[in-house]
Amino acid sequence: MKNVLIVGAGKGGSALLKILYNTDRMKMTAVVDHNPDAAGIIQASEMGIPTGENWRDWIHKDIDIVIEATGNEDVLNDLLETTSRSTVVIPGSVAYIVSELLEEKELLVKRLQLQSENQELILNNIRDGMIVINDQEQVQFVNKSAERITDVAKDHFIGKNIKNVIAGTRLPHVIRSRRREVNQKLVLENGKKVITTRMPIINMEDRLIGAFAVFKDITEVVNLAEENTDLKEIKTMLEAIIQSSDEAISVVDESGTGIMINPAYTRITGLRESDIVGAPATADISEGESMHMKVLKTRRAVRGVRMKVGPGKRDVLVNVAPVIVDGKIKGSVGVLHDVSEIKTLTSELKRARQIIRNLEAKYTFDDIIGASEEMKISLEQAKVGAKTPASILLRGESGTGKELFAHAIHNESDRKHNKFIRVNCAAIAESILESELFGYEEGAFSGAKQGGKKGLFEEANLGSIFLDEIGELSLHMQAKLLRVLQENEIVRVGGTNPITLNVRIITATNVNLEKAIMNKTFREDLYYRLNRLPIYIPSLQERIDDLPDLIRHIINKTNQDYGRNVKSVSEQAFEYLKTYHWPGNVRELENVIGRAMIYMDMNEEVIQKNHIPDLTGTAARKDDRKAVIPAIPDQSLQQAVNNFEKEYIRKAFEKNNYNKTKTAKELQVSIRNLYYKLEKYSMQNFS
Ligand SMILES: Nc1ncnc2c1ncn2[C@@H]1O[C@H](COP(=O)(O)OP(=O)(O)OP(=O)(O)O)[C@@H](O)[C@H]1O
């Protein structure tokens, strides 16, 4: 510590004072000037430094340095002579400049400080993150956004090696390479996706002093973009579904203006996009108020409305639903379901089923239940007959199992891998029977298909044809059939070329053919041809011993068909069934057991007598006279008439022991008409 005396405390002195006062290696002993108002004197006394007017009064031992600040030469010489102590002479003006410079420096420092504070403020307020490191890879600066994006607090950044804070950082690499990296993608440890630009910091002397990174959080943008892509994909998919749908679809906006329709809509309604899109919904398919408008008004879906649309007046079912998003109605979507197509398909399906039924021989001898002596004889004959090519005539009452035998014979023969065609001669209208059986040539009649059509005989070639109800054939058809049997060939309707065939003919009848021959309604020569191997199937009454086995078989079959679990019949019920004479044979037994099972509760396992319908037939006969009229009409007249007709036919069948010829006679309708009614009322189990 040096003791200093300042002499001459005018302008220069005061400046010196300012310079020296703050150093800790100097101590002001005193400040003197002959002018007590000199700036230095005033300042010194404000600072608590001793002051005086004559420097000589202050020269004493412990003063190390005397500084003459004024530049006054007399005082200086005097000083130099009087004191041996180190004396520094600084011209006042120099001290003044130094002091000014210092002040300026201070100001600059302050300004820089302010500037850096401002810069920090700005950097902290930008949305992009910013990290600055020095050439030692230590973090020097990090802004608020960087803290937010990285989820790392400033304290954990500053002074740390950047590699320890941000995994995968490439800032050290930028320091080494001195090359900037622009818009690079990086996924942070917290899952955020950022896009970052890294720059080396190089000063004017080309010295590398660090590097910085500026980065943006693009997580939201990327997610939005991904969501957008997802939405686009969903939209494309939905459009593809709508476009390819067979259901006609139309969409309107909240005001009822058409937005879109699909090709099926045009196909069904005949309306094109230009008729619908952009037009008010009043132009759509419905007569009266548009369904869309109704739905928009009520905000309620409309389902299953039947309409006829388009030039073809197609039957459609219409469903319209409102589109409601966040509680607001945005439009409505209508779907037309073409029922006429279903109708066509259903009838095609029915036809296909019929064909399949005709082509299949479903049953084998294993399906024929009968251990009684009478039945054993029939089965034996049939099995032997199956192995020969001879025509077989199956005889027996209605419902005895003639069709079952025909199937079994085919399946037992060496033709079993070829077709089995069943033709019910009574069920096919006489007018088309010939072309059905023998086919026709192109142009044979109006409506004939191009290229002609194969008949059922041709279909059955190498297989078997089963002609049921052969007694119902007209004499004209009998003559045609005889030719087939004699020549083994057929001629298509409208054709001349005979076609040779190899078909096994199985026929069946429950009418007395011998009587028909006498009445001249059946050709004798045909009878002999068909009757080469007659097989008589006994009635159920003739083989009543088979009743238990048949009941068991029928219960099992019905359980399977209707998902029931019936096990047996009670003894009392069995006795009741046994005493009945079964005019309708096995078919009637099937009907009776089936109806008994309907009357049983789901959990009942044994058929009791009270489940079995009255078998005396008297009740039915009594009922026949009065029509049952529902108290309150709840159906159309046509429905009521149909129901009555169905019930009436059923009762006539019961009365006539399920014999179709007798039933038709009693009802005074043709047997063909009876077949037609049976099909109409799904009563095929009677045939
Ligand atoms: N022996 C039997 N074993 C099992 N089921 C039988 C037997 N006989 C007949 N059925 C059944 O009784 C019903 C009537 O048989 P099927 O149609 O073969 O009689 P059908 O003699 O051809 O009658 P229809 O002369 O009226 O044409 C069928 O459901 C058949 O499965």
Task: Please describe what this structure looks like.
By secondary structure, the chain is α/β, with parallel strands linked by helices. It folds into six domains: 2-101, NAD(P)-binding Rossmann-like Domain (Rossmann fold, 3-Layer(aba) Sandwich), CATH 3.40.50; 126-221, PAS domain (Beta-Lactamase, 2-Layer Sandwich); 246-342, 2-Layer Sandwich (Beta-Lactamase); 365-536, Rossmann fold (3-Layer(aba) Sandwich), CATH 3.40.50.300; 541-615, Helicase, Ruva Protein, domain 3, CATH 1.10.8; 621-687, Arc Repressor Mutant, subunit A (Orthogonal Bundle). Helices cover 43% and strands 20% of the residues. It has 26 helices and 24 strands. The strands form six sheets. A five-stranded parallel β-sheet has the order 3-2-1-4-5, with helices on both faces. Strands 7-6-10-9-8 form a five-stranded antiparallel β-sheet, sandwiched between helices. A five-stranded antiparallel β-sheet has the order 12-11-15-14-13. A hairpin with a 4-residue loop joins strand 6 and strand 7. The longest helix has 34 residues, at 92-125. Residues 618-628 have low confidence and may be disordered. Residues 368-370, 396, 398-404, 468, 510, 553, 586-587, 590 line the site of adenosine-5'-triphosphate. InterPro entries: AAA+_ATPase (IPR003593), AAA_lid_NorR (IPR058031), DapB_N (IPR000846), Homeodomain-like_sf (IPR009057), HTH_Fis (IPR002197), NAD(P)-bd_dom_sf (IPR036291), P-loop_NTPase (IPR027417), PAS (IPR000014). This is Sigma-54-dependent Fis family transcriptional regulator. Keywords: ATP-binding, NADP, Nucleotide-binding, Oxidoreductase, Transcription, Transcription regulation.
